[in-house]
Amino acid sequence: MQSFLRRNILIPLRRGVLVRRLRRGENLLAGFSKRFKGVKKTELEKISGIVGFEPDDTRLFSKAFTHKTLAFQKGLLDMSNERLEFLGDSVLNLYISIRLFEIFPDAAEGALTRMRSYLVNTRRLAKLSKELGLHEILKVGESFEGDPAEQTSILADTFEALLGAVYLNKGWEASGAFIEKYFDIEKASAKLDSKSKLQQIVQKESGILPQYTVVKEEGLPHKKHFVVEVEFSGAVRGSGEGSNKKNAQECAAKNALSKMGNTDDRK
């Protein structure tokens, strides 16, 4: 898997092959109209501080902060930031996925997916976008309804569009540095559910999977009660109760983690 990522994604990214291909599809920037007002000098300085470098192509970053309502209003549909948003979303998910894959070599696919979902979601991106003040740079048209600062999807989209511009302007390494600046990827494991976290620890230490056994099941069909034990390394390590097997297993895993001294507040 690692060789596949390296051969088909990382090497082309680092060599700039994909960047050149994508730029060939960005010829629309050549038709940048004088009627369009790009980012101001003060805004460009703010963007530079956020991304960590001075943009080479200011038109590209003007596009990143152009909402489709303004592009439509100016008759410059190709200047909408939607394409950059699409690209930024892909870059973000790919980078986070690769880093999680590297940091947690023993994590199961489900655990990796949950960690990525914790790191990359609309609400989180919107919060980050607002903290950075990206809505203050975003240009919208007269038909735009509401306040961009209060619209979660708009805020998240703007962050992704900015990342798309970073990638096209400076490539994979700069994009990675930008992402690492605002995402604490290594702490994602703290947000795993107890069952996933226990599995990750046991796999890493022993190379085996915890086994869950229902030791007691009682109650009416519509009001069941389960007691589950979790076992690994030849001994029962924890037990838990719940109204269904899933909840009971989660409680058993949490109990096992507590006994192992691996607890967190999960807030």
Structure explained in plain terms:
The protein is 56% helix and 10% strand. It has 267 residues and is mostly helical. A three-stranded antiparallel β-sheet has the order 1-2-3. Strand 1 (211-220) and strand 2 (223-232) form a beta hairpin. Mean pLDDT is 86; it is low at 27-36.
Largest sheet: 3 strands, antiparallel
Helix content: 55-70%
Estimate what percentage of residues fall within beta strands. 5-15%
Query: What gap, in angstroms, lies between the N and C termini?
Result: 33 Å
Mean pLDDT: 86
Number of helical runs?
A: 12
Order of helices and strands: HHHHHHHHHHHEEEH
Instruction: List the uncertain runs.
Output: 27-36
The geometry reads as elongated
What is the count of structural domains? 2
Using only CA atoms, what is the Rg? Answer: 24 Å
Secondary-structure-based class equals mainly alpha
Q: Using the coordinates above, name the CATH class of the largest domain.
A: Mainly Alpha
Order of strands across the biggest sheet? 1-2-3
Number of E strands: 3
Q: In CATH terms, what is the fold-level topology of the largest domain?
A: Ribonuclease iii, N-terminal Endonuclease Domain, Chain A
